[in-house]
Amino acid sequence: MTTERTDFPHEIVAAPDYGMVNVTIPAGKTLQVEASAMAWMDSSLTMKTKMKGGLKRLLTGEKLFINSFTAESEQAAIGIAPGTPGDLAHVYLENETIFLQNSSYLASSPELEVAAEFQGFKGFFSGEKLFMVRCSGTGDLWFNTFGSIIEIDVTGNYVVDTGHIVGFTEGLSFDVRPVAGMKSLFFSGEGLVCRFSGQGKVWIQSRKNPAFIRWADQFRRVEKKNDS
Predict the structure, then answer these.
(1) Nearest-CA neighbor of 39 among 9, 69, 59?
(2) What pLDDT sits at residue 3?
(3) Is residue 153 in some structural domain?
(4) CATH number, residue 163
(5) Is residue 227 helix, strand or coil?
(6) What is the chain's alpha carbon radius of gyration, rounded to the nearest angstrom?
(7) Greater pLDDT, 40 or 185
(8) Structural contact between residues 25 and 96, judged by C-beta atoms closer than 8 angstroms
(9) 87, 93, 102, 134 from 108: Cα distances, Å
(10) Residue 90 CB contacts under 8 Å (≥ 6 apart), including other chains
(11) Which of the residue ranges 21-30, 178-187, 209-218 has the most confident prediction, judged by mean pLDDT?
(12) In percent, how much of the chain has pLDDT > 70?
């Protein structure tokens, strides 16, 4: 795994607060991009949409739509922006696998297999029905975070709040549990944590969506109902 190697020349801009990536797609090549993440593109690019996971995933709400942008006759550029404010990262996988929470996947080489099928963490991330995206093979991968991104080299054991997890490398073992027993889950203000063990990498984000939503909710304007 490396950050320097790439098959798609690119530049990350506006990071770390509102990161986006501008990618050059070589002639005859295709780039996979999360649906709705395209900010701008050259008019020569063609686009197709594919749903990862099939009909069963659609019925259960576990769906991942990916747009494929192809530069057919000449190289072309595209700007890709995630939906949340924060940072983004690029890695080049070399016959490797990374698991991402579904909202963190941004774009990848077509050679990478992107599958919304791993469900070991279903229901644990941020208290929502989120699922993991399995990215495996050889090629470029971009992913985003809510807030800043922190890369951690794990050797042995490491504990992370599930709402802060962005992704992790294959080979790490994990166990999801309350931070200090079931009582702490309801009274401490802390939620579930993931205890990683082994050797690999974990990426975490400096903010988590539910905490931000709770903070912002106090400023939400509420219209009073007239009693009549």
Answers:
(1) 69
(2) 80
(3) yes
(4) 3.60.160.10
(5) coil
(6) 19
(7) 40
(8) no
(9) 17, 10, 14, 12
(10) 3, 6, 10, 12, 21, 140, 141, 142
(11) 21-30
(12) 75
DSSP notation for 1-58: -BSS--SS-EEEESTTTB-EEEEEE-TT-EEEEETT-EEEE-TT-EEEEEEETHHHHH
Here the tokens at position 35 are 């649906």
Partner residues linked to 197 by β-bridges: 157, 173
The model's pLDDT over 168-192, given as tens digits with 9 standing for 90+, comes to 999 998 887 776 554 444 444 456 7
Say if 94 falls within a structural domain. yes
- Span of 29-38, 97-106, 169-178 with lowest mean pLDDT: 169-178
- Average pLDDT (49-61) is 53
pLDDT band at 88 (very low <50, low <70, confident <90, very high): very high
Q: How far apart are CA 214 and CA 99, in angstroms?
A: 27
Alpha-carbon gap, residue 106 to 5, rounded angstroms = 18
Rounded Cα distance between 69 and 35, Å, is 11
- Max Cα distance, the chain (Å): 68
pTM equals 0.82
The size of the chain, in residues, is 228
Residue 4 inside a domain? The answer is no
Question: Considering the domain boundaries, does residue 183 fall inside one?
Answer: yes
Per-residue pLDDT, 44: 96
Query: Residue 60 CA to chain centroid, in angstroms?
Result: 20
Domain of 145?
10-217
**Partner residues linked to 114 by β-bridges:** 135
